Amino acid sequence: MSFTPDPSKKTKHDPRFTYARIIFFIALCILIVTSANNTAIAIILTGTLGLLGSKIFEDFFETAIEKFDQMLPNFNGRLPEKLLFKVINSLKSHYTFAINCFISLLILALLVTTLHDAIGTFTGNVNDALCLHSSIPWPACNTGIGTTNLSNGVRVGLITYDSNPGPFDQTGLNGEEKKAENLIFQEDEKTCTTPQRITLAVVTMLSRTVEDPSGSANNGIADLQGAYLAQQEYNASHPQLKLCLTIANLGTLTNANKTSNHTSNADYSLSLVIKQIVQFAHYDATFHGIIGFPYSTQSQEAYEEFTKNWPSVSLPIISPSASSNALSNINNFYHIVSPDASQNQVMAQFFCSSLLKNQSSAPIDIFTENDPPPDLYSNSLQVGFENELQRQCPNKLVRIDHDVYKNNDAPSIQQAADNALKKHDRYIFFPDYNTDLGILETELKRHLDPNSTQAITILGGDGLYDSTGVTYSPYFPIYATVFASPLSTTSLSKDPSTAQKISHFIAEYKKVFSQPPLTQSTPVYTLFPAHTILAYDATTAFTETAKNFKTADFQQSTFNKFLSSIAFDGVSGRITFQGNGISAQYSSSPSSGYVYMMCTDHYSQTTHLVAQYESINMDGGITVHRVLPDKQEPQAPCS
User: Helix 95-114 and helix 116-132: axis angle, to 10°?
Assistant: First the structure.
């Protein structure tokens, strides 16, 4: 029996086959263009296109049938001949259809392989639209809980007590993070299972990289410590409405900054984590607020992300430590510390009245952050401090130089330091973070002649102060402001209730956490990580608001309204929010706050409190006045 195909039934002139070939040709061209970044796939697609041009698909089935026809006698009845006849005859009868099916399947396979990421993104966007932008019930909605490893090895995401908990830090230095997380989750096991609760997310930074081995992680750990102390204290005294915490990690300062030199699009974490927060808000009806974001630029980018992509989300944000002047009037956003204008005034006043006392001149080099767009915090400090210097210091005493640098960019910091030495500047104002302080100090030490009489003193804002030891300078004295430290029951508060609160905080901190590794210069005050105190007060602002409710069946808008005018005695001082319309210019800022001037003495290796100021942040403007320090506190500048 012969199965040779009938030449009159060949399909190479069939218009349907020609149309299929044209469609396939166009699809391949599109795939080759979209696969330009994947060399292997592009080569495969180009080769397939070439084979198509040589009509290999048209001849494939015809050749296969002829070969099968030749091999058929070799089966010698081992296969049912009638069945084979039916298969081959059907294949010949539907020759064009078979070829078109083959082409269609190949196109589908190539599309799935090449456009896998695009398809995943598209389906994810459709799923998010149904879950987050509509009221349609949808079973595939994501809870937002989970972690992601970025291409640089940093783990980010949102974790809860009953998910796969951290630590986010995968290095051998993660002991303190694990301790703080375990304490929070142990508390959560008792409180997150009841429907009568409020849930908050602590959004901070807990990762370490080569560029940032400790600065971000230390501040993040301090944020967790402060949040836990406030959580434990509130839950112990309020049995009706409990506090449950989740933890979100942004990675490091560079990962959470869109414009950082070290952050690629794949390693930018803030948008990813915010999306998880929004998903969690739709998943958990008890979720009512965010404790974070730690820094000014992050806070601004987070606010823009929420307003642009998630305008229906009305979660209030309380940043423990963001201080840029640009964040003073933002709806539903608050910060515990005073705006940078307050510490600018404090630094200039202290510089002019104390450091320049009995001096005939004071050349100072103000480092200017030159990363477009500039970091909000650094820009606020640099511009504000220079303006205050010109206002508060006699022109004859101060010669102001400038050198540009970039945050997280060692070569630019080193070049600026070299320039300052060449100009014989005695003071350097460094409006940066402690993660870059070591670069500056090392470069100054390396190029300063040991026999030179030139003395260098470094000044900066609260970004330079870190009581875990980063601020310790083996080479130069450092003066830095801080919004919350040190703590004292005798000198920083005359109010008995506040003194009792501070005393309780000190006792609880020492009971649970390790004492910061500092040599204290006097026994009157205890040095703590500032972020611990500020995160404690940020969490307390939420718990003070929660005290207005007996059950969890309240609206988010009602919660936000109570929060906008909350007032309480925090560990960092009296905190009163102005978001209820009383203040227009400073609606996101507390009405007042303390600013402390600390210095690190590189001879005695101790950190001192040298001055204390109170800042009033009202629509009439920000004014600061010095509070005379207690006689037991050191008043002499560091050397």
Answer: 70
Is beta strand 146-149 parallel, antiparallel or unpaired with respect to 155-159?
antiparallel
Cis bond before residue 320 (omega within 30° of 0): no
DSSP structural state of residue 585? T
10 Å CB burial of residue 582 (0-12, 13-18, 19+) is middle
Task: Give the pLDDT mean for 399-406.
Answer: 91
Express each pLDDT in 283-332 by its tens digit: 999 999 999 999 999 999 999 999 998 888 899 999 999 999 999 999 99
Beta strand 427-429 with 362-369 is parallel
Question: Could you say which DSSP state residue 173 is in?
Answer: T
User: CB–CB of 536/230 below 8 Å?
Assistant: yes
317 class by beta-carbon count within 10 Å (0-12 exposed, 13-18 middle, 19+ buried) = buried
Q: Which two tokens stand for residue 234?
A: 């509130």
Q: Which of 109-113, 149-153, 411-415 has the lowest mean pLDDT?
A: 109-113
Residue 398: what residue type? V
Q: From CA 4, how far away is CA 69, in angstroms rounded?
A: 7
Q: Which residues contact 462 (CB under 8 A, 6 or more apart)?
A: 321, 323, 337, 343, 480, 481, 482, 483, 530
* Distance between start and end Cα atoms, the chain: 107
Give the residue carrying structure tokens 């064009």: 96
CA dihedral 433, 436, 438, 443 (to 10 degrees): -130
Model pLDDT for residues 529-559, shown as the tens digit of each residue: 889 999 999 999 999 999 999 999 999 999 9
DSSP character string of 115-164: THHHHHHHHHHHHHHHHHSS----TT-----EEEE-TTS-EEEEE-TTS-
Tell me the β-bridge partners of 595. 613
Instruction: For residues 434 and 217, give the distance between their C-alpha atoms in angstroms, rounded to a whole number.
Output: 12
Per-residue pLDDT at 11: 43
* Nearest one of 185, 175, 181, 179 to 208, comparing CA atoms: 175
